[in-house]
UniProtKB/TrEMBL annotation, chain A:
The keyword Nucleotide-binding does not apply. InterPro entries: MetI-like, MetI-like_sf. The chain crosses the membrane at residues 7-28, 67-91, 103-124, 136-157, 178-200, 236-257. This is ABC-type maltose transport system, permease component. Residues 68-257 form the ABC transmembrane type-1 domain.
Automatic annotation (TrEMBL), chain B:
Pfam families: ABC_tran. GO terms for molecular function: ABC-type ferric iron transporter activity; ATP binding; ATP hydrolysis activity. This is Sugar ABC transporter ATPase. Residues 3-234 form the ABC transporter domain. PROSITE patterns: ABC_TRANSPORTER_1, ABC_TRANSPORTER_2. It comes from the Bacteria. Keywords: ATP-binding, Cell membrane, Membrane, Nucleotide-binding, Transport. GO terms for cellular component: ATP-binding cassette (ABC) transporter complex, substrate-binding subunit-containing. Gene3D superfamilies: 2.40.50.100, P-loop containing nucleotide triphosphate hydrolases (3.40.50.300).
Amino acid sequence: MKKAASVLRYVILTLGALIMILPFFWMLSTSLKTQPETVQIPPVWIPKQLQWGNYVEAFKAAPFARYFVNSVIVTTVTTVGQLFTSILAAFAFSKLHFWGRNLVFMIFLGTMMIPGEMLIIPNFVTLSNMHLVNTYGALILPWLASFFTVFTLRQTFNSVPDQTYYAAKIDGASDWRFLWHILVPMSKSTITAVTVLQVIGSWNAFMWPLIVTNDENMRTLPVGLQAFTTDAGTNYALLMAASTFVIIPMVIVYIFLQKYIIAGISNSGLKG
Amino acid sequence: MQVTFKDVTLSYDGKRDILKHLNFVIQEGSLVCLLGPSGGGKSTTLMLISGLLAPTHGQIYFGDTDVTKEDALGRKVGMVFQNYALYPHLTVQKNIEFPLKMAGLSRADRAKKAHELAALVHVDDQLDKKPGELSGGQQQRVAIARALAKEPSILLLDEPLSNLDARLRIEMREEIRRIQRETGVTTVFVTHDQDEAMHISDQIMVLHDGHIQQFSTPKTLYASPDNLFVAQFIGEPVINSVPASALSHDLAGVVSDDILSRAQTAGIRPEALTLPQRALDPLTTLHGKVIEFDQFGRESTAKLDYNDLQLISTEMGQLPHNTQELDFTLEKKGFFLFDADGKRIFGGDDHAE
Ligand SMILES: Nc1ncnc2c1ncn2[C@@H]1O[C@H](COP(=O)(O)OP(=O)(O)OP(=O)(O)O)[C@@H](O)[C@H]1O
Ligand SMILES: [Mg+2]
């Protein structure tokens, strides 16, 4: 009886894992197919002959090196900047007592109810008034503050007792020092988790970069993938080959940091 | 450092006063316990001494200096919190060194000092561990070492022992007393455990309802409680408190009529009710029934019925079996009368201290 239950559990988990992995497998498989194989019915799971040449061709099809540099710059600056502002804000909301703190916090919390799509047009108008369209500024500026990150960090900072803050004060640490030398190291795992989520988020961002850039030189990788969709249709093999090298850095990040991501999401953040 | 509060009032929200016009002096080099029920304002008083909290009204002096406007750093206090508040990501040594680092001491000086302090509190073999790897008692010691690191003018401890088991508590309170004697630092210790307070303090301040109920030596606190609250709060088993009117017949002629007429409540410590043959300094003799008698080892408790009131005595060890009714002695020591406001008007010693 017990054994049957455990077998059943494995079967369900395995099925779940297969379903999750299927798109990745399909991407890899398609990236190694010939053009006709990609649209063949019934679908081809494993190409007859692996078309490694697709990768070379895909890389040549668009200035991916430039896109890559853009993606790295945008992702790095966005993540670092957003983390910096969020840590400061979360600290203030968690440990400082200032007039109107709860009110401000509630208002910020309210902004989380606004769907991101609704902000696209106002943000675009603002940035174009600032003549920032087609610049890194447009790609980065709107993402330098994220209340979701502030909120997550505040929860973690709240779990650090106020006494620790007082102890540091008595020991002679300034707020600044306490924040960076004690609070942040104590919240390491949550910070790592939100960092990774943010890196993945900005690396994969598509809609916003697509809207605020039309200059080839300003495109990021996900937007660059459009190169394979023309009026004549989509070259799926090349698109999937390019997609593969776009996501590889994220897969690597995930593999190395998955421990923290899981800890951060399940918010057991503080064991250190 | 001598600490003086002059008419200190504190309100967190501007509406309700948590501490009301506090006046006291803590003598240099002494160990003072703040004792009282939960919510009495003990932690708040400690926060005021530390400078983490500023009083709403009144002044605080360290020695002759007015430090009311100084923060915790300026007052140079050391503090140990109930949860120890160690930095979990730093080793024991780094924890102890932290205040020294903030003060700008060189690496070598810091290490030397940390080793000395670790030796003082007996954690010198744990220096490379993280706090999470230590037992509660060890964490406690590290917290004390860290608080002592910058040679504080005053050491403040907020219920530092409440997370420890009973045995360790007794051991650690002796340790705190030893460390306090060795360093001579003025120490204020918050607890709601009267046993703890009675054992280690030079003086005890009983706080309740935002007022100092009494501030005196442990002995005086027990032998001459200023009011009914203190009498009931201190002592285990709890003092018998009965309406004074029930005793007025037996007390007539022993206590002056004037006092008897004002007395509202009588307090009788359980050890003040003895058998006549064992009486030391009898006030009068009472007559009552035995309701229940328990003996365990050397200790005993007898529940007596006196004028339909229940009294507990711990001094009836020699009571013959199957005693139903008896005459028993009310000792002078341990008998008090309180007026309608709860103020002591009879018993105890007014010239103590
Ligand atoms: N930060 C605060 N804001 C508002 N009210 C507070 C705050 N801290 C304490 N109080 C209130 O002040 C009163 C005294 O609290 P305090 O913590 O000083 O009591 P205590 O004697 O230390 O009690 P305990 O034994 O439970 O620690 C309580 O009524 C409490 O609710
Ligand atoms: Mg308290």
